[in-house]
């Protein structure tokens, strides 16, 4: 059965966070979508959690790039929505996406949308950091995957999908290739809430992990390669 949206979510030991995202998707006001979870070999109950309420669950020990590509290969939607497992979206999220797509349709302009990130753990520091991250994303100077990426499947396939040789930076690499032929839009009201666990702990910046992530961004921007595995923060 064909759908308007296919939502692709890569996971690895996300039983604690995935239910929050799945709940927000179950409450969407726009209903024409499917949810595809691609698990990288979780040792917890992530797969069991996903199997109870998503349309398709795939299991394969692979990086995020290939996981997302696998999800696309079994998808039926005309538009792809890539979200992280620890995200949360408002109930009107997909409805807003539809409205934005329709906004550009009269001019026959095809766009790729990137959400605006907001922290789930609302603190002054986290909000400032996320706002700065969104600013850098517009300059293509940071990884935007946690913000949510929405793109027409035909465009995704035309540019070759995510680069499976990248263990991180695959999201920025994809947007760079898409931007050669398609306009990238960053709507202010298309919010994707994200967990701050990767770089904050107990309300304070986790300096070690923050510096590691900054180093990864610099490395990718300088070499267009990723030489180490993405740090898994639980």
Explain what the structure shows.
This protein has 234 residues and is α/β, with parallel strands linked by helices. The chain has one domain: Spore Coat Polysaccharide Biosynthesis Protein SpsA, Chain A, CATH 3.90.550. It is built from 8 helices and 12 strands. The chain has helices at residues 18-26, 46-51, 64-73, 93-104, 124-138, 153-158, 170-178, 207-223, and strands at residues 3-11, 33-39, 56-59, 77-82, 87-89, 111-114, 116-119, 149-152, 183-185, 191-194, 200-201, 204-205. The model has no long low-confidence stretch (mean pLDDT 89).
How would you sum up the major sheet? 7 strands, mixed
Strand tally: 12
Share of helical residues: 25-40%
Question: Helix- and strand-based class?
Answer: alpha/beta
Poorly predicted ranges: none
Question: Cα distance, first to last residue?
Answer: 36 Å
Strand content: 15-25%
Following the backbone from N to C, one meets helices and strands in this order, namely: EHEHEHEEHEEHEHHEEEEH
Overall mean confidence score, pLDDT? 89
Please state the overall shape, judged from the principal axes of the Cα atoms.
globular
Radius of gyration: 17 Å
């Amino acid at each position: 059965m064909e759908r308007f949206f296919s939502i692709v979510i890569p996971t690895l030991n996300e039983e604690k966070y995935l239910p929050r995202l799945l709940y927000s998707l179950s409450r969407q006001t726009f209903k024409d979508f499917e949810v595809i979870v691609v698990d990288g070999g979780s040792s917890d109950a992530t797969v069991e959690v996903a199997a109870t309420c998503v349309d398709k669950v795939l299991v394969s020990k692979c990086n995020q790039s290939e996981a997302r590509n696998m999800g696309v290969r079994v998808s039926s939607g005309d538009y792809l929505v890539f979200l992280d497992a620890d995200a949360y979206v408002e109930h009107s999220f997909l409805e807003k996406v539809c409205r934005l797509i329709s906004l550009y349709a009269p001019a026959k302009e095809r766009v790729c949308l990137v959400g605006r990130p907001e922290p789930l753990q609302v603190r002054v520091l986290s909000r400032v950091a996320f706002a700065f991250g969104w600013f850098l994303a517009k300059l293509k100077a940071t990884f935007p995957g946690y913000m949510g990426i929405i793109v027409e499947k035909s465009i995704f396939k035309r540019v070759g999908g995510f680069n499976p040789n990248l263990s991180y930076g695959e999201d920025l690499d994809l947007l760079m290739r898409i931007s050669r032929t398609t306009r990238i839009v960053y709507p202010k009201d298309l919010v994707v809430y994200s967990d701050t666990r990767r770089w904050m702990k107990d309300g304070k910046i986790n300096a070690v992990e923050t510096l590691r992530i900054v180093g990864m961004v610099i490395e990718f921007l300088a070499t267009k390669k990723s030489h180490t595995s993405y740090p898994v923060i639980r």
